[in-house]
């Protein structure tokens, strides 16, 4: 039982216990000398984001020692920072983090709670012009240029084709097709889609500017009407399916091997890259369709009340160096959000980013779904279930 917590202690209490330790240190208990060392940056992050190779490079080349606290998910990041800001276990305890990892879809919630501090003025210097409107739409970038969040990694759900003729998907002289390319007679019964992405595609089809989705956040009737239309828009896609996939195992089963039933569909960008590298017999092509594709952006933010924001600024400056961002991407397997880093990535990864996102302006067609709440979240989940289990 060593190291195990009593089953009656919930996560919130555990977080408070951790902050009690910080409070004792701040109220009389001696802290070790390295705690205030100018190289030390206290970072709250998700597992896998800062492997040892990256930390060693940042220490060697940029004089930064990352002291990483690992969080299970976005809700844990929120809880840890909120509790620290609200004075648990006692008022006056220092904010225990200088920087934290945060998804763009969560920025609006954090800003509403006044939990984010402004970033240094040059923090967004490496951000591609194509991404700036996306950041502004999610509350990460103000009209006056003030930013509270800087992108680190990006991902997307791309349209995928495998097998004979796949190359023609990306080589069309009139640009990439729309998602309705999957409805062609030649692909009937040979399409595989991921249900969560499929519903977002349906939302984009029936509500391209997001007006109805915003209304659905607080209005049950609006949510029901919106996702009734989404279900109708997805009906022909459901009819074209060989099957759905929901994780890496089912994706491989659908798309790899001689008996794979799928010729086309959607894929997370990391899976599409891996498939292209592994597939020696059948060509693989991917595009961001004409009407765009759902994507995601993970980034970095300084919590309000951070004691050493200048150390956070040093890490942001280090990651603005394309070679450093590329080293981070190579070590984690995640695509850096800075396109200037793509040429320095390992060949398969960098070539994929250049061909799918840079060529043909694919990056500018990505859109980042918001974090859903209220009736919209419930209606979305119900639509997803209907797509997966008709």
Structural features, described:
The protein has 390 residues and is an alpha/beta fold. The two termini are 45 Å apart. It has helices at residues 11-26, 52-62, 74-85, 107-112, 132-137, 167-170, 195-206, 211-216, 220-240, 248-255, 269-278, 309-319, 322-332, 347-358, 374-388, and strands at residues 40-46, 65-71, 99-103, 116-117, 150-162, 191-193, 241-244, 264-268, 284-287, 293-303, 335-336, 366-367. The protein folds into two domains: 11-153 and 297-344, Periplasmic binding protein-like II (D-Maltodextrin-Binding Protein, domain 2); 155-294 and 367-388, 3-Layer(aba) Sandwich (D-Maltodextrin-Binding Protein, domain 2).
Query: What would the principal axes of the Cα set say about the shape?
Result: globular
CATH class of the largest domain: Alpha Beta
CATH fold node name of the largest domain: D-Maltodextrin-Binding Protein, domain 2
- How many H/I helices? 15
Work out the radius of gyration: 23 Å
Please count the beta strands (DSSP E, at least 2 residues each). 12
SS class? alpha/beta
Summed up, what is this model?
The chain has about 400 residues and is an alpha/beta fold. It is about 40% helix and about 15% strand.
What's the structural blueprint in terms of helices and strands?
Elements: H1 11-26, E1 40-46, H2 52-62, E2 65-71, H3 74-85, E3 99-103, H4 107-112, E4 116-117, H5 132-137, E5 150-162, H6 167-170, E6 191-193, H7 195-206, H8 211-216, H9 220-240, E7 241-244, H10 248-255, E8 264-268, H11 269-278, E9 284-287, E10 293-303, H12 309-319, H13 322-332, E11 335-336, H14 347-358, E12 366-367, H15 374-388
Parallel strand pairs: 1-2, 1-3, 6-7, 6-8, 10-12
Antiparallel strand pairs: 3-10, 4-10, 5-8, 5-9, 5-10, 5-11
